[in-house]
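<derive_structure_tokens>
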Amino acid sequence: MRHEDFPPPTPRRVPVFAAAALAGVCLTAAGCAGDGGQDPKAGPESASRSAVSTPSAPQPSAPAAPPSASPERRGPLTGRTVVIDPGHNPGNRDHTREINSQVAIGTGHKECDTTGTATDAGYAEAEFTLDVSRRLRTLLEDQGAKVVLTQDGDRPYGPCVDERARIGNKERADAVVSVHADGSATGNRGFHVILPAAVNGDGADTAKIVAPSRDLGERIAGNFVRVTGSAPSNYIGDNTGLDTRDDLGGLNLSTVPKVFIECGNMRDPNDAALLTSSGWRQKAALGIAEGVGSYLKR
């Protein structure tokens, strides 16, 4: 489904660059530095004592060592904060009353959230977005970034779209990416990145984030093409892989650079085969991560 289950307005045609040029945008791959290993376990101490030995003077006990903190990962994104917004929530289907409550989005009101879409075989968008978001988190953390998820399967439903925006704002994120998959008609294929439009009113003002969000979106689109091999959408964005909208609260209410990415169309069997593949989802996460890294290291 379209985000927040509202049919979008007639797509804005954004003359950014042709699909063929996407693969040439910011192709520098960001290296990932992993960490790991465990502390060796100390073996039990043994001491032999003589039955006739003279007892020694008592020794003062050593102070207990403070617990050691896990070493922070350092890399090219150290000091940067990224918020990842896994679209929808698997629990939304069980909380229809709550997610149908209306919230202000800057250009009107919409439902708090929706259940999202699913493949014909029943693989839910909410499951897809959480899986890709967790993979993306690992890739970015391995490069030193601080990563915050708006939800990690740890909430019964939501959060609402306005709260999703506030989470990124509160973190003063350097970049926010909302991960989704579309629910269009069979035959409609490919990915597209949604950019914020200029919105001012009812608590929303995107003036400062329109330009940097476009830069972020273009870099994600270019790297997504290169890493996944997927083509830009053949039904939105005039084959640019980019679309601009003013009806999404998650974008309208953001005060930090933010984009949505529709990774493919769950209702098309060819796209669904990709979206349900664990290997392809890892490529999707990598494409997004390299786009974000390119933006943050610019």
Remarks:
- The CA atoms of residues 47 and 53 lie 13 Å apart.
